[in-house]
Amino acid sequence: MKKKRKRGFLWDLRKNWILWLFLCPTLIFFLINHYLPMAGVYMAFTDFNFKGGIFGSEFVGLKNFEFLVKGNVLGRLTINTILYNLVFIVLGNIVQLLVSIVISQISGKRFKKTVQTLILMPYFVSYVVLNVVAYNLLSYDNGLINNFAVNVFGGERLNFYTHAEWWPFILVAFYIWKGLGYGSVVYLATITGISQEYYEAAKIDGASTIQQIRYITLPALKPTCIMLVVYSVGGIVRGQFELFYQLVGENGLLYSTTDILDTYIYRATLNSVNYGMTTAAGLYQSVLGLVIVLLVNFMIRKTEPEYALF
Amino acid sequence: MKNKKTKIMIKSQRRFDIATYPFLSLLTLVCVLPFLLILSGSFTANDVIVREGFSLIPKSPTLAAYEHIFETPQKILNAYGVTIETTLIGTGIGLCLISLAGYVLSRKEFRYRNQVSFIIYFTSLFGGGLIPYYYVMCGILKLKGTLTALWLSGIMSPFLIILMRTFIRQSVPDELCEAAKIDGAGHGTTFLKVVLPVLKPALATIGLFLALGFWNDWYRSSLFSINSSTWTLQFYLYNMVNKATSMRDLALEAGITIQDMPTESVKMAMAMLATGPVLLVYPFVQKYFVSGITVGAVKG
Hints:
The complex is a heterodimer.
Chain A: H1 9-15, H2 17-39, E1 46-47, H3 53-56, E2 58-59, H4 63-70, H5 73-105, H6 109-119, H7 121-124, H8 127-138, H9 144-152, H10 167-193, H11 196-204, H12 209-234, H13 241-248, H14 255-258, H15 261-270, H16 275-303
Antiparallel strand pairs in A: 1-2
Chain B: H1 2-42, H2 46-52, H3 64-71, H4 74-106, H5 113-122, H6 130-140, H7 148-152, H8 158-171, H9 174-182, H10 187-198, H11 200-215, H12 219-224, H13 233-242, H14 244-254, H15 263-298
Helix pairs in contact in B: 1-15, 3-15, 4-8, 4-11, 8-11, 9-10, 11-15, 13-14, 13-15
């Protein structure tokens, strides 16, 4: 009888070489695109310049972080990022839930289908087009809203692009607009999965439509809702970069209420301000994000293990 | 008795409908209106926009804006070319790699599937940030200003690989692969002859997600372009809307001054050109996206 061989990684590599070959390009992709940049966070501890490269730039320890802390930049940006995401998560989910429930309960098959198709449309257009849409509505001279304000109500023109205090509302509105279709599809899928027998039984007992929603649909949607919220809370320090950058862009007048970590880092990168310091800001965001994901996951595991992310 | 209950039921449904029809109709209108606004703007004469602002129905419709854009078509055609090329290359390569990876990760006999899945998943939890990524692309791979930079990072994502794995698990029963194995088929044959044919809807879904990502991308173009030769359609539109210089260049090429340029309607026409193809195919491919979103949500 042959001795049982120890089956290690190399053994598997030889036996399943074809599977490893299949995986090879994917692994190389993630190595180059994700793991190499992870190693590159070393730049956060240097006074980086492109000429010297990673090893030719001077090592400065924690100086970059010190600057960021002293400049009090990160605190405000972090708070902005988290607050925006909280509102996005809460309002976004409420609207999506509401819409998907109404779609599922409303009578009229064709109307249902049409609504479903059309509310998913904003999801398909790029954020640059979102930018054009915003311009179309908000522009001082030609925007639809200003036209209405002046021609119909005889009011004054509003200059949206100079009033920072209005932008939280504008950003939230556009976020909901763009994500409504996607989220509703997810919730609707869950609703479709509910056995019709529950509804039949409820109808026999004479339950009204509202009662059916209250006692059948909503409880059935709870797991999906919790799952989606947990997932988004895990990414709460990652801002909606494209949304913010396309709507606000380089309009410095609006930064006080609209600047988030992602837009700040992007601008600093394009303007090549200080690579070391910008890397430090990015590293701070990544580490904070990881800590929050682990924390959320840990807490969920303790209380409701079936919703854990991993 | 039963009759009475049914009557109440119908009444309750009717009341619900009366309350919600306007709500959903309004909401749908809000989702569609902006596109109609852009469409209408692109067919409106510029001086009408300047005088009366944007409106839903173009007064005295004209093709002037489109004619103006195609008077000097090099830049827009180049942007179309860049977008189409990156979309085709990126989607093609991405689809091959994702389906291969999804196949391997769905095979039970592959012992390291959890470890490899984790290596892939971890990248969605932690990253090096923008600058190190930029340095890898430009400093090490020297991809600045190339077309490759526009599609390379977009060919795969943890979400799409896991989505593909879920699709394969759902639509390819283990027995099918077992049977192929007993018939002497290796992994290559199994993948090509057994798995791929049943996977057509999944390939369509993931291919469409990829293609949409490439078509709508302006970010990589903004990071890695040296000049307008690698501007994608979206980034071209972005510059047109936000940078006065792009408008001036277009006017210069047409041999007119910026004052004579129908800037407002040209912006709208550009937006239509950039997003039109997506909106045109959208009704036909929507079901694939819906299936992708649904399946993706099930398994995080």
